[in-house]
Amino acid sequence: METTVKTMLRDGAALTDSALERLLPGPETLPHSIHRAMRHSVFAGGKRLRPILCIEAARLAAAIHPHTKFEPEAAAELGAALEMLHTYSLIHDDLPALDDDVLRRGQPTCHVVFGEATAILAGDALQTFAFQTIGNLRCPATTTVAILKEVAAAVGTGVGRVGDIYTGLAPGMIGGQVMDIEGEGHKPTATLVEAIHRAKTGALIAVSITAGGLFGAGDSHSASASTIARLRSFGEKAGLAFQIVDDVLDMTQDSAQLGKTAGKDTATDKATWPAVYGIEQSIADAKELIADAFAELAPFGPAAEGLKAIAQYLVERTN
Amino acid sequence: METTVKTMLRDGAALTDSALERLLPGPETLPHSIHRAMRHSVFAGGKRLRPILCIEAARLAAAIHPHTKFEPEAAAELGAALEMLHTYSLIHDDLPALDDDVLRRGQPTCHVVFGEATAILAGDALQTFAFQTIGNLRCPATTTVAILKEVAAAVGTGVGRVGDIYTGLAPGMIGGQVMDIEGEGHKPTATLVEAIHRAKTGALIAVSITAGGLFGAGDSHSASASTIARLRSFGEKAGLAFQIVDDVLDMTQDSAQLGKTAGKDTATDKATWPAVYGIEQSIADAKELIADAFAELAPFGPAAEGLKAIAQYLVERTN
Fold it and tell me: Three-class SS of residue B107?
């Protein structure tokens, strides 16, 4: 089983890298500086978690909608768009005006290598390329529009309507970053930590799974609302569990193991799960969330094995 | 005639403001700081040039495609998305790491009022909201996807493919900003100045007109390639003329008239048209470009009067 998951992760990452390589301008494309800055951060050794979840969700949705054909390379393009959004948020989060971080994935951060101005614009451009990539997805236009609405809502300030399937207030990535900044210097509360996690990292992880599901189903109208709702709920729970594990690793691992500056969360009194609940309870909470997430996938039977195996692996990881 | 243009500009701006007010989260929406920062810059007295051009292009396209109905409020939502993109680029351009400007449209810039971190995120969020707004446009999904591709290509680094209608290298807004930064401190050449202007401001102005045309035609497949090609060419020429006039005004007007720091281009040896050609030649070039732009619209007859009047007004403006 362990080997199967590792193979799946490796294959998903390779598919994603190949899509990113194909979609992003090369380092010799003018103007050089920004394309090199974008590639520096995109190809800095990320785990490709969001694309892998996206691809597996697309595979699941295609499997339960028998009239659709699953094309991994096409799904990986949506995954690449999600990875571009993730990378843009990291580049901006690392800037001196925000987290002021010099190390990310074991590499010097974008602004350290290319300067602040180029790093700001490289982040901007990765967001733009992500939406351009969504515009060029190989799927029906109605599916593209459904994915566009979902993704834009998930990476915004968190007040947008979410697609055709669900209307209401939903967490958004930028909103999570703002709450994180506003909360600094205050003792973190349970409510605030959960809101930040659900928005700052949870929303993009959850939308990787719902957007993958919409893509895999081939036509947004044939994807039943209940399938997408189950994928969303799975994604929200798995995303929160992932972030809790991240918080725990930040407190228990050193910088070399993590590839980024360890202990930074404690040092700046950041809102983290262990800061509220302690390390043991945090680990228990992550496991419980994953069990709840798995329950959402039960009706899909064996088609959900891939997504479940990856989620399991993510909460048991050590970096 | 003068009165007609001013009425058109005022009505277009009012439609845009109303769409922006409807689409953007209110100042009391949590988290407060970012929504207030976004609104500070969006409602700082911009002329709404891009939305007005978009609405008039949509009106033109609807007029020459008799089966489509022109709905100004719906077109203004696309205009609002373009204004969000314009505002995001200004917020980031004004940051200390880029132009370090403290005054814009007669108001203190976003980072001066809300701090750098919030200004960076407010710019990010305006880009996201722009694409979310495109996702929610009231038009067929195929039209939305065509508009998405056009707009994303125009505000990117300038290497993307442009929609279904035209494939090739096209200038992009972020690419223009990068060229502008890279060119600083060097004596500007004619080739560089034109490339920067076509990319940094020209691409978004041109796409305001092509996207408006696609929207007004109601269905991207019924908008003939030649209509969109003519609108694109008009937009590229009018956009370049607009920027040349902007350069001239920067050298000949004081800060109070402009509502921003005048003479800044000269002070920092920036790439401007008058720096290469002098003021008189610049004014002549702008007029010639507008005449060429008008020629593109000739086949549309009276339907093009609105777009032409606005373009004429823009090169004769004094602020």
Answer: strand
Coil, helix or strand at residue B306: helix
Residue A267: is its pLDDT beyond 60?
Answer: no
> Distance from B230 to chain A by nearest Cα, in Å?
23
Q: How far is B80 from chain A (nearest CA, A)?
A: 16
Residue (of A128, A164, A159, A160) closest to A147 by Cα position:
A164
* CA–CA separation, A38 and A20 (whole Å): 11
- Confidence bin at B318 (pLDDT 50/70/90): confident
What is d(CA B213, CA A112) in angstroms, rounded to the nearest whole number?
43
Question: What span, in angstroms and rounded, lies between the C-alpha atoms of B14 and A162?
Answer: 28
| Neighbour count for residue A191 (Cβ, 10 Å) | 9
Greatest alpha-carbon span in chain B = 54
DSSP for A218-236 reads: SSTTTS-HHHHHHHHHHHH
CA pair distance B239, B236, nearest whole angstrom = 5
Contact B54, B82 (CB under 8 A): yes
pLDDT reading at A159 higher than 60: no
pLDDT at B112 over 60: yes
Instruction: Assess A175–B contact: CB distance below 8 Å, yes or no.
Output: yes
Highest mean pLDDT pick, A264-273, B195-204, B247-256: B195-204
Cα separation, B44 vs B23, in Å, equals 17
Residue A102: is it exposed, middle or buried by C-beta count within 10 angstroms (0-12/13-18/19+)? middle
User: Burial of A226 by CB count in 10 Å (0-12 exposed, 13-18 middle, 19+ buried)?
Assistant: exposed
> Taking the CA atoms of chain B, what radius of gyration do you get in angstroms?
18
How distant is the alpha carbon of residue A1 from its chain centre? 24
What are the two backbone dihedrals, phi and then psi, of residue B111, each rounded to the nearest 5 degrees?
-70, -25
**Fold exhibited by the domain A2-316:** Farnesyl Diphosphate Synthase (1.10.600)
A144 contact B CB<8A? yes
Confidence at residue A106, expressed as pLDDT on a 0 to 100 scale: 84
HEC per residue, B128-186: HHHHHHHHCCCCCHHHHHHHHHHHHHHCCCCCCCECCCECCCCCCHHHHHHHHHHHCCC
Report pLDDT for B268: 54
Residues of A in contact with B116 (CB under 8 A): 97
Contact across the interface for B116 and A124, Cβ inside 8 Å: no
> Running DSSP on this structure, what letter comes out for residue A26?
P
A 273-302 near B (Cβ less than 8 A): none
Q: Indicate whether this complex's ipTM tops 0.95.
A: no
Q: What is the pLDDT of residue B62?
A: 92
3-state secondary structure of A166: strand
Confirm or reject contact between A153 and chain B (CB < 8 A): yes
Tell the burial category of B2 from Cβ atoms under 10 Å away from its Cβ (0-12, 13-18, 19+): exposed
Give me the residue from B129, B148, B181 closest to A117, CB to CB: B181
Flag whether the pTM goes above 0.90.
yes
What is the band of B256 on the pLDDT scale with cuts at 50, 70, 90? low
